[in-house]
Every structure is written in C-alpha cells, then in structure tokens.
Amino acid sequence: MSRLWLVGFCFFALAALACGQQAGTMQAETHPKLTWKQCSGAGSCTAQNGEIVLDSNWRWLRKDDGGYSNCYTGNTWDAEACPDDASCAKNCALEGADYSGTYGITSSGDSLTLKLVTGSNVGSRTYLMKDEETYQVFNLLNKEFTFDVDVSKLPCGTNGALYFVEMPADGDKGKGNNNAGAKYGTGYCDAQCPHDLKFIAGEANVEGWEPSEGDKNSGSGKYGSCCNEMDIWEANSMGAAYTPHTCKKEGLYRCTGTECGDGDERYSGVCDKDGCDYSHYRLGATDYFGPGKTVDTNSKMTVVTQFVGNPLTEIRRFYIQNGKQIDNSVVSVPGVSNYSSITGNFCEEYKQVFGDQNSFDADGGLSEMSASLGRGHVLVMSLWVDFAAHMLWLDSSYPTDGDPSKPGIKRGECATSSGVPADVISQNADAQVVFSNIRFGDIGSTTST
C-alpha cells in the first residue's frame, strides 16, 4: 500500500494473536461468504460465490503438540518452539478464527464490514477466496474494477484499503513448512517488503526478530516479503489515493539486507515504495474529496477504476454518487499538466515538480505493472492504523518538517498531530469501513446495472 517516505509497512493487531504454518485443530476455520459479480458486455453480470479469509498474522499461533501453549506471545517468540526459522514453522500451528467475535469482520450477501476495534483487537487484513483453499486471482489488463464503499466512519489516521498484490494463489502452501496455505491466510507480500510478517515462504521470521517499541504485539524480523502492488483504494473520510507500485522481482520475493529497501536504503531495494500516487488533495484538488465536498465522504460512493490497454498505458478513475457520475479530479499544480489519470508522463512530470525520486520508472513503471497484472493479483481488503507515520502521508502534511506551501507536501486537512494510534483507538472505537457490490469485467460493463 502506498506510504510515501514511510520506512516500513505493518498492519497491527493489539490482541495477543499471531500467525503460523501448520493447520491447527483446536478451532475450525469457517470463511465468511461474500458474493461479487463478473461482468461482460453492457449489463451482463453473473454472481460469483466468494469467501473471505483473515490474514495469518492475526491468528492464534500455538505449539503443535496437542496443548494450548503459544508459540508467540505479545511480541516475543517462544524460544523452545522457535529456535530457528525452519523449526518454528514445523512446531507451530495456525488456528481458525472467530471472525465477528474477535476481529469485527462480518459479511452479508455482497457486503463486507471491517471494524477497527473489537475487544482488544485492532484492525484486520482479509483476502477474497475463489474457494476454501485458493485465493481469487484477477487479471486487470483492459478490465474495470468497481465497488461501493462507505468511509463515513473513518477519521484521520485510519485507512480502509482495497488493493491488489501479486501473492501466490495457494498462499505458498507446500513451500518450506507451510501446510496451512491460503485457507489460513498465508503468503502475503507487498511493495513495502514488510518485515512484520512472522512467516515468509514457508519459514518463520525468527532470526533477527526485534519487538516493536510502539506496538506491544508486533515486531520485525530479518526478512521482508516483497511483491508488486496495485493500490486501488487507500482512504478515510479525509483523503484518498490510488497508486501502482512496481518491483524488480516476480511474485513473492523474500528479501534481506539492502534489497528490502529499509531506512536510508529506500531506493536501493527491489520494490518502488513511493509508487506513482494519484492523490486528489496532493495534486491540487483540495475541494474534491471529503465531508460535503464534490465526492462527499458522508455518504456511500461507487469507485470505478479502469486499466486501459494490454500492455497497460493508463489507469483511470471516476466515482458515482447519488446516481451521478463524478469524473476524476484534474491536476492543478503549477508546472504539471492537467492530467486526470495515471500515465507514464503523469508520473514523470509530477515527481519532477514535487522533487520526488522517480523510483516508479526506475523499477519498470507501467510496463512492469502491466506484466505483473498479467500474471494475476489477489484482492486485499483491510482496515489499519499507522504506527510508523500516523497516516499523515494520506490525510495531512508529510513529511512533517516540510513546508506545507511546497507542492506535494500537503495531502489533506488533518492536523500533523493526528493519527497517533493510541488516540485513534481510544477516541474512535466505532470506526469501520464497509465494502460492497464488487464488480469486475470488461471496461464499461460494471456500471450499467
């Protein structure tokens, strides 16, 4: 997911939950059902019976010895069960999830609701399944992806995200010691090469694990999990962006050292962490998206994204709200042409004016994004808070020591003091995002019904 200048990427659950590689037997895994539509031609859409699965990083991880002892508690591994990466994957089991009771994840028909706070749990990351054992894979080239979303209960500092990543359809089941697979939400990767994943490519991430100072239930290991990423939707009620991120590797790649692009080596890694972001507010359309604005975040909206060409040449966006189509915002930044979509020229031009390093083009640009989308992506839907940068890159001024009058610094109207996870959690326990009416098909086919 797009986090400009963000050092790392994490989704954090504040419950004592974790992830693993063996399939547990203590609690059954029952996926919530979610229907969506496959469309072709004008108005010809067929309902698909999908399922939702919770990412493995949120799950109870216990010793696979018939008892109830944890392999991971708080942000620390059990030394006996996890002396090394390979042994840990053999010794620990992922358990089934209580989706609504523990995680605040509910579905009804074609609607999925993700709650921010449920008991001691915060946030979640979910994937759309083709069947009980396999993620649904989409090829977006020359296609259109449409969904409805309600962000009215998402304040500053939250992110209700819908995006695609080039993760394996089987969750890397059978690789290393991964016997759980997609059924238990394994195999995640993205362009931030996250180190907080406790298992990557069938092995644990125990080596070099450092507990987080800010989050009592998270940490980071030696390895990161990298892959191409297409952020269709990163948003709360105050800001929104859509962003392609490219990588120099195909599929899930377990990185280490410089290739992860951590810290000062951000632009030396295998993935473009900045991406080519189309952020309405950052690009000068300050009255376009938000409460009472052109796209009014007080009400549900339809989000339409079109992937033009094979190979890909353009990524278009428009909205539908209250029965009316709202064309995408137009760039209004001195020195940048009046673009209204993502193209190669748009990325090159705005990054030069903003003074951003163009790692997107350096890592392959739309050409590499096209190749990745052609190989197929998995749909991710999530809700999270940001311990690293407080989501200021989405809805405020970032970096905070930058001049807000400088092009590209101001991304929304949230205060630079906003987004502190402890504050967001305590003050907005009722925050939630609702995704519904997902449609996918030929360009022009998903909005005619």
UniProtKB/TrEMBL annotation:
One of its GO terms (molecular function) is cellulose 1,4-beta-cellobiosidase activity. Keywords: Carbohydrate metabolism, Cellulose degradation, Glycosidase, Hydrolase, Polysaccharide degradation, Signal. It is an enzyme of class 3 (hydrolase). SUPFAM superfamilies: Concanavalin A-like lectins/glucanases. InterPro entries: ConA-like_dom_sf, Glyco_hydro_7, Glyco_hydro_7_sf. GO terms for biological process: cellulose catabolic process. Its EC number is 3.2.1.91. The keyword Acyltransferase does not apply. Residues 1-20 form the signal peptide. Coiled coil: none annotated. The keyword Hydrolase applies. It holds the Pfam family Glyco_hydro_7. It catalyses: Hydrolysis of (1->4)-beta-D-glucosidic linkages in cellulose and cellotetraose, releasing cellobiose from the non-reducing ends of the chains. Belongs to the glycosyl hydrolase 7 (cellulase C) family. This is cellulose 1,4-beta-cellobiosidase (non-reducing end). It comes from Mesosa myops.
